[in-house]
């Protein structure tokens, strides 16, 4: 059965390709094609794909018998607006449409996409599932009567590939340094939080004095410097952990990351850590799946990581927690 997989693939976020690996396991097929803006990268990260396509018309030209719409935080207005007409045409041609493991954003800021075509697609889906309870609420808020099934981030179960970790960190051995995995997004909001709430960050890190740092880089976005975890990790280490030894400095090399990193290799690295401090939700998901203690560090105003911890609360390794950071308060108004 030819199946087309739709998601935010090829942008340089290994969390999205991780979701594609899970979708392929949930919807097995010998003829799988995925949307991607960077086919070579997606094909390297996700074994088992027969090919990639660049847009909706190219997808329809494949004449898929099944379409799986998912892949991380793909339940957003822009994705719904673009893909709904193509999904409707594929459905009319006989394709089964599955909305799978969706992360759904707040949809009420723009309801123009939720037209008769979109309602028709939702009403006739072969299946509908979301990854967390808040995503289900978002669909209900939009006026969709159909309730989705909850998947609870099934990508936690994807098996790690230990080869890169063993090559860079060596085999596990008695007396080896304890390892602190670190993943930070260098967005302006996070930078402001790290400046304003630096004492809280240092208090979190105090427990891990003496650990060697493993830079965990899951995103080097093709379009956004604000989504470059290489920069985020390097800047954070320089500011908060300047004296900590770095295990496997090659993990901060951009060309190495582009050539070698995959979702399962990333999980293999996280599985070697004694604890992970992360702002990236899919790195937290890797840690939880591998039984590694995880501390979420994120801006309070962003619920992405928090909703992940809440959804997987029953599976958190002991000592795991989510730490919210405040931004710099707004300036006081000038006195007259």
Automatic annotation (TrEMBL):
InterPro entries: Polysacch_pyruvyl_Trfase (IPR007345)
Keyword hit for Cytoplasm: no
Keyword Transferase: yes
One of the record's GO molecular function terms: transferase activity
Domain Polysaccharide pyruvyl transferase: residue ranges: 13-297
Domain of life the protein comes from: Bacteria
Keywords, ordered alphabetically: Transferase
PANTHER family attached to this UniProt entry: COLANIC ACID BIOSYNTHESIS PROTEIN WCAK
Designated name of the protein: Polysaccharide pyruvyl transferase family protein WcaK
């Amino acid at each position: 059965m030819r199946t087309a997989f739709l998601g935010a693939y090829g942008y340089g976020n290994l969390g999205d390709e991780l979701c594609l690996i899970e979708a392929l396991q949930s919807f097995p097929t010998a003829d799988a094609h995925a949307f991607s803006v960077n086919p070579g990268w997606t094909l390297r990260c996700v074994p088992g794909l027969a090919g990639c396509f660049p847009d909706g018309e190219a997808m329809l030209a494949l004449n898929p018998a099944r379409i799986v719409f998912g892949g991380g935080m793909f339940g957003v207005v822009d994705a719904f607006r673009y893909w709904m007409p193509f999904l409707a045409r594929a459905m009319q041609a006989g394709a089964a449409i599955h909305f799978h493991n969706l992360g759904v954003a707040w949809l009420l800021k723009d309801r123009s996409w939720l037209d008769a075509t979109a309602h028709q697609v939702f009403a006739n889906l072969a299946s509908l599932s979301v990854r967390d309870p808040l995503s289900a609420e978002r669909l209900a808020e939009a006026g969709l009567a159909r309730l989705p099934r909850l998947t609870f981030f099934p990508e936690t179960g994807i098996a790690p590939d230990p080869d890169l970790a063993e090559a860079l960190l060596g085999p596990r051995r008695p007396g080896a340094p304890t390892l602190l995995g670190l993943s930070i997004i260098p967005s302006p909001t996070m930078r402001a939080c790290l400046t304003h709430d630096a004492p809280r960050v240092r208090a979190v890190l105090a427990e891990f004095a003496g650990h060697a740092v493993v830079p965990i880089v899951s995103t080097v976005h093709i379009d956004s410097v604000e989504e470059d975890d290489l920069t985020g990790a390097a800047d954070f280490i320089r500011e908060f952990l300047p004296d900590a030894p770095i295990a496997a400095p090659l993990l901060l090399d951009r060309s190495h990351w582009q050539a070698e990193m995959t979702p399962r290799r990333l999980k293999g690295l996280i599985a070697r850590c004694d604890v992970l401090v992360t702002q990236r939700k899919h790195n937290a998901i890797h840690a939880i799946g591998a039984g590694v203690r995880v501390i979420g560090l994120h801006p309070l105003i962003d619920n992405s990581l928090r909703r992940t911890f809440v959804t997987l609360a029953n599976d958190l390794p002991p000592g795991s927690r989510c730490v919210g950071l405040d931004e710099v308060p707004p300036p006081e108004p000038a006195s007259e």
